[in-house]
Specification:
The complex is a heterodimer of chains A (112) and B (880).
Chain A: H1 8-20, H2 26-37, H3 43-55, E1 59-64, E2 75-80, H4 82-101
Antiparallel strand pairs in A: 1-2
Helix pairs in contact in A: 1-2, 1-3
Chain B: H1 5-14, H2 17-36, H3 41-53, H4 61-64, H5 69-87, H6 89-117, E1 129-138, E2 141-145, H7 152-159, E3 163-170, H8 172-175, E4 179-183, E5 186-189, E6 193-196, H9 200-203, E7 208-211, E8 222-226, H10 227-234, H11 237-240, E9 244-248, E10 253-262, E11 275-278, H12 282-285, E12 298-303, H13 309-323, H14 326-330, E13 334-339, H15 343-346, H16 359-386, H17 388-400, H18 405-437, H19 439-443, H20 455-481, H21 485-490, H22 499-532, E14 542-546, H23 550-554, H24 556-564, E15 569-575, E16 586-591, E17 600-607, H25 611-615, E18 619-622, H26 632-635, E19 636-640, H27 641-647, E20 656-662, E21 666-677, E22 692-696, E23 705-710, H28 715-729, E24 737-739, H29 740-745, H30 749-783, H31 785-793, H32 798-832, H33 843-870, H34 873-877
Helix pairs in contact in B: 1-2, 1-3, 2-3, 5-18, 6-16, 6-18, 6-30, 7-13, 16-20, 16-22, 16-30, 18-20, 22-30, 22-32, 22-33, 24-28, 30-33, 32-33
The chains are: A mainly alpha (112), B alpha+beta (880).
Chain lengths: 112, 880
Amino acid sequence: MKGTNLGEFEELVLLTVGVLFDEAYGVAIQEELERRCKRSATLSTIHVALHRLEQKGFLDSRLDGATSERGGRRKLLFRVTKSGQKALATARELRAELWSSIPKAAFDLKYR
Amino acid sequence: MRPPKWIDHLLDYLLEPRLYEAAVGDLDEKYQRRLAANTPRWKAKLYYIVEGISFVRLAKASALIPDTNHTMMFRNYMIVALRNFSKDKLYVFLNLAGLCIGITCAIVIYTYIVFEKSYDRFHKNADSIYRITEQLPDDAQLVNSAMNHSPMAPILASNLPGVKNVVRILPYSSFYNCFVSVGPDRIFKENRFGFVDSTFFDTFTFPPLAGSLEHALDAPFDIVITRSMAIKYFDQPERAVGKTIIFENDSRKFDFHVTAVIHDFPQNSHFSLDFMASISSLEQFMPWYDNWHYPPLYLYMEMMTPVDKLELQKSIHSIASRSQPAEVVAEKRSYAVQPLTEIHLHSRLEYEWEANSNYQYIRIYILAGIFLLIVACINFMNMSTAKSVRRAREVGMRKVLGGRKSQLIGQFLSESFLYCLISFITGVLIAELSLRIVLTEIIGKELSLVDLVNPETAVTAGVFLMALSLIAGFYPAFYLSAFNPSHTLKGKLSRDRSASLRKGLVTFQFLISCFLITGTYIVMRQVDFMIEKDLGFKESHMIVLRLSDRDAQMNYAVLKNDLLQESVVSQAGLSSTIPGGGNFYGIDAVAEGSPDQKPVNIKSLGVDEGFIPAYDLKLVDGRNFSTDVPTDQAEAFILNETAVKRFGWTDAIGKGFQITVYINGAVVRKGKVISVVKDFHFQSLHNNIEPLVLYINKHPYYADYLSVAFNAGSPSASVELLRKKWAAFNPDKPLDFLFLDSSLNDLYTTEIKISKIFNILAILSIFISCLGLFGLSAFMAERRSKEVGIRKVFGARLVHIANLQNREFLPLIIGANVIVWPVAYLWAQKWLQGFAYHIELTPMIFLLILLGSVAIVVVTLAYFSLRMATKNPVQTLRYE
């Protein structure tokens, strides 16, 4: 069974797919990532992450929306599934919990 | 305008259709957007290509390994091969073990030979460097010396056309003691101290580690040292440059200025030094080095381009006869030119840097390696054909389903390739391990396969692997693929046609093994013979002290008398050299009654009164030297039997005798022979006993060894005693001693090494053969199980059945032995001729080997013979 952990990059991609809602495909995700997160990734890197997320069941995909810009080829459009949402929520909770558990003194400059 | 089309095709091939459409779409879109954002076209195109190619990561599995008919069949072959592996593990194990051992040996031998051939090739101009050696008359006999005379260097440098550099190297520490220090607490005895010309580093390539090598040896008392010396004396290589080291021995003390540090000499250099001092220092150090009389140094020459060595030799001769002083020309010395890269394997002269290798032994190793591989390949052939029954149905099935013969051959060849590949990979690992762990000691060098990693070896390995799998798999492939499907599928097997071939191959295997065993056995016997032969003097419980400084040499009697006080010390004697030690200087002797009183050159040994009793030499006639007879000191001589025979005397006692000794010039000693000593082997057993004269000589020049004979006691206790006495006698210098018996064994290092290597190879060869035989006997036991069952039912006895297999194989082994006898005999005869004293080749030796090989075969066969014989016939006959 494939693990269902979310890698850091995978989490970003998954969130971006959520952000783009119905327009989440390779180029769009790439540009969004670059714009929002200052992360530049090649198209194949994005697709590898998308492929893995799909295998883990966090994404759904369909072919649609050909444009002339793409030489009449359709886009592979992605959408976050229910379990994808759950995974994102879990990741967020986990972080929030970790954040709240950090003792105040730890990040206090005086003690460093 | 359009992005490159080939990316499109590539991705079409590589990716799932869905992803392909999306990926190329994305790439196109991105390309257009980049152009729209004013990215230069070439850049956009480049992005397109790079990003496109990186989609390989998402390629479907079938795209990377194409799903053609061939690959599918190949995959099937491998699956079938692996299934067969697991079906008969014993057979697979025997096959793999044999191949693996053979390949390991081949790899080790290859590594060793590559190393031996790499000697001195690391010099940038190795091909145009030559060593000039000299053949000169020395006391009536011609000496082929690796060394040369110093004045030859300027003569060659100025007269010979095409010379780039002439380099002289004087290995000072081979002649004299060297102590080097940087302070009172860091003083060491050094034995790789030499003086070299300033051109040394121009000719030879030794990269600097610190300091500059240019002008490093221009001034007197400049010195370049190696890294390990720099660390030894200065802790860090960089710190050594600019420092001073103090050179010291019994007669001299000088300061040297370290100008540079180089890396240690590579293992594959035929000479090595730790200290290279400028040869100009010798003017103050030892000015007599520059003479025509005694050759103290090695002479190398770098030419502009590689030249013909015979041509060069000729020009050297003509220049020498023109430029040398008349009295030297009269001696008719001759010179030989050795290309630098040939010295290690081909040069066998007197006074070499170190004992060189012999290319003949290299040939033997190559041969042995090939033999082992053949033995291993035969195993594979035998077992594959023997087991063919198992595969017959598969072959039949494949043929019925349309498999062509060529396909079947391909299948079996790829199987043998699989075997070879597995054995090769394991073999590489084992070879590396054994090179590092076991063989370092035998070879004396640290070799590793890592040094061999380069494209050339990769190709060699590939070709080797292919060739090996072809040789091993060729016959089984043809044999197996020739089965007739209509027979095999009916379950009826045609007669096992390969049985007689198998027998022939087994005989051949044992032929090779028997040859190796015979060779090994003879070498071992000869080595034992040399080590154990009674040399005619006391060898055990003898410890020899080397008297290395003048004080010790002058006052040796103090130490000797002190030692004789001890009850464990029975005798002690002084001598100029020791048995097995060389340096039995040839001297001119004139014997009474010889025609014209012409001097004859014979070997000499200067001794004191204690020497003969210490070594327990037997006097045939007469008396030992005595302090009670004052004239003994200069006028008494003791000859060995060979010398007496040489002079044609029947009664030597009282005959007049005269020798010329060099002590600050020639001194003539005239006197009488006082006794005859029984011949003893004062040189290695490679040589005949030569005429020898013993005379009293206690002069410090000759007082080099003090031999101490102990009654009893452990070696460590004896050494402890010597250490104590030495500390009281000469506290400044370390005790330098050797055990006589082990130093005598050192005379035969080459033979001992060969014997060890032969031993390993022979054992492995016989082991592989036995693996094969074991597999065959397993197979035969299985095939004959019904026959044996019937025999038992009819009352055959156990011994009779157990003997069935022996009867099959023993004639083969005996046949193999008989074929080997003449070949081994001839080889051994030739090899033994290199020894003046050697074992006799008796029929016993060959019979012993025959018996040995029969015993090994019987033991190998025993397991399955007995299993076959003890099986209950009910089990074997119940079938059906």
